[in-house]
Amino acid sequence: MRLILMIVSASLVLGGCAAHHGAKGDPEVDAESHARGEGKTPEENRVPAVAAGDEQPDEDLVEASPEKVHARERPHELFAPLNLPTASERRLASGAPGPDYWQQRVDYTIDAELNADEQHLDADMVVRYHNNSPHELTYLWIQLEQNLFKDDSLGTLSRSRGGVMREADEPLSGGYTITKVCSGNRKLEFTVYDTLGRLELPEPIEAGECFTFEMSYSFEMPPHLRRMGAEEVDQGTIFEYAQWFPHVCVYDDVYGWNTLPYLGTGEFYTNYGDFDVRVTVPRDHLVAATGVLQNPEEVMTSSQMSRLLEAMGSEETVVIREADEVADPGSRPAGEGPLTWHFKASDVRTFAWASSESFLWDACAAKITDLEGDARLVLCQSLYPVEAEEAWGPEAEQGGSSQYVKHAIEFYSDWLHPYPYPVMSNINGPEGGMEYPMIVFCGGRKGRGPYGVTDHEVGHTWFPMIVNTDERRHIWMDEGFNTFINGYSNAAFRERQAELHGEDADHGGRRRTGRGGRGWRSASRETSHPIAVPADHMDGRNVGALGYSKTGVGLRILREHVLGEERFDTAFQEYIRRWVFKSPQPADFFRTMEDAAGADLAWFWRGWFYETGVLDFGISNVSVEDGTLRFIVNSYGEQVMPVEYEIVYGDGSSERGFVPVQAWFSSNEKLVRKVIGERAVVRIAVDPEGVLPDADEGDNVWGEREEEGE
Ligand SMILES: [Zn+2]
User: Fold this and answer.
1) CB-based contacts of 43: which residues, under 8 Å, 6+ apart?
2) Ligand 1 centroid vs 53 CA: distance in angstroms?
3) Residue 367 CA to ligand 1 centre (angstroms)
4) Distance, CA 453 to ligand 1 centroid (Å)?
5) 20 to 30 A from 663, CA-CA: which of 217, 331, 344, 575?
6) Which residues have C-beta within 8 Å of that of residue 321, sequence separation ≥ 6?
């Protein structure tokens, strides 16, 4: 018996059901691309969410040569063990930090004064360097990231297309002026090389010793090129300070001194430490910073203090300073001259702050459960100019910034690890989106604009603020992990919004892997380089596609398609538990995931993170003979994945089958045989729900076209 079947263009077949996969306009996709506020200028972030979150143009993605993809000639090579660094008692084969793991610690005391009119900052700093390594150190390397903002910096001179450093309108005259480097009364030799400085030690720092030195420095606020800057707004100037103090490079067991220069795109790798910071600013300014304010009675009015106290226990947002108070001198403590705001922070990897006379201020409390099971409140506060009030204030359509911060802190604390700090501040100013411990700078001043970027920046608390990765080398462990967790937070937020407004939550694309979105596209095309490349080494146009989106989609596939949610979450939570307040390397992540999930995933890490190949499945060689259906599931791509297939019969019934990844160990073809008796087969589809990014969907379906009304 032979079947006669209508074979139609499979792209039409899939095109016909695209809507149910969530195509353009899918909130999932919107959220994913929207979350990357970091890659956008503030102007781009200030358009309404629907536009801001719209898919980015294809030309953003730099593709490899358009040769036809082909399967591996030697498929087993994909499954070989990864070439990871040899495990040691510092970093175990299980992926956990071992008994000999160590990391340095650096504490800072900084006294800074802002001359707002001149946009000039002067600071004195005391640094206590704790040498926890088993080694004697004879010099220290210091990061001088502010030196990027010079006309002749390596970052300025090498700026590439798509990189985050924007062109300045005028010649750059930024960078540190360092007026003092000493230890006690002893002047120290200090040599500057672009964004690095080498500090000669008067005598070696022995293992276990602490060395204290002092520096004085100043710099002019650079034009806003990235991550910090000043912005004139209606009622004043907003100053955002980050990378604003010289800090000691990381000395670790993997690279020794980590001295990659700051070129602009690659972010940061820093030491944990305690910060004791005083910033002196004009009396009419409000300041928010990493850390807990130590002297509220000196810098706030009594009514502001009582409103803040109310907010600290309130789920609802409490206004601390409203629009018509901004220009009112009564909203600042009486007196003359500048005020000093004093903050302390423990166990943070850096310190940032913002200051302005234009700030409105509101706050609420997030409720989280600590590891010990005790409830704890976290102050979620927002400071923004009047221009942003409509989108940021408590009257905003979706609740406003402080509620977005609260949602993110509660969601990620519940899923991943309790938020470890007492406060989180969200600042609206020149920066479109950047994360620091306990403070984030977010753009967006209209509509739903601030939600996605706020969720993303607060999400960075988990990666890299408390799992302290080397962002300069491994952008995917920072942005990619964050993009991955953001997808779930955004879905939960949408559900809550729908509940509040009595609507049906849109579940349409919730469990999909962002099909049709930028992440899905970047994963279904061969790109010019793999994910595992330092951000500064990438074509800038690929940073978002690979470092953020493709990584996010990959982890989502690993969770929902390869391991399953429970197995993935157990392993991912183990990774966080092992490495919280420590610095994992990629190998520590791969090993922990395999160890805790009980799975050999070398093929996944290699295919997804270290190679540029794509997935490409197909159905071929369909025949029915003597009541037995035979067909081949082909894996044409260089990457592989476990994959489902679906057989649809003439009587309308259907059944699913599964090809495990082990089927691809030695072959790119999997013959499926099925006794079907007298039934007619009308359709066979591989990956019938389209959960995998397939480079060529044209051959994914054999048989009848699915059409509405059929
Ligand atoms: Zn980010």
Assistant:
1) none
2) 15
3) 24
4) 9
5) 575
6) 286, 304, 331, 359, 360, 361
Given its phi and psi angles, is residue 5 left (phi above 0), alpha (psi -120 to 50 degrees) or beta?
beta
* Token couple for 399: 């609740």
At 687, list the tokens.
């990956």
Q: Measured in angstroms, how far is the CA atom of residue 122 from the centroid of ligand 1? A: 29
Tell me the percentage of the chain whose pLDDT exceeds 90: 77
Task: Compute how many other C-beta atoms are within 10 angstroms of the C-beta atom of residue 673.
Answer: 8
User: What's the gap in Å between 82 CA and the centre of ligand 1?
Assistant: 28
Q: What angle do CA 477, 478, 479 make, to 5 degrees?
A: 110
Least confident interval from 28-32, 358-362, 426-430? 28-32
DSSP E strands in 413-506: the ranges are 423-428, 433-436, 439-442
Residues contacting residue 527 through CB under 8 Å, at least 6 positions apart: 61, 62, 63, 64, 542, 545, 546, 550, 612
Stated pTM of the model: 0.89
* Tens of pLDDT, residues 25-83: 333 333 333 343 443 433 333 322 222 223 333 445 555 544 445 678 888 899 999 99
Q: Does residue 677 contact residue 659 with C-beta atoms inside 8 Å?
A: no
Distance 224 CA to ligand 1 centre (A): 18
User: What is the four-CA torsion angle of 614, 618, 621, 625, rounded to 10 degrees?
Assistant: 140
| 3 state SS of 501 | coil
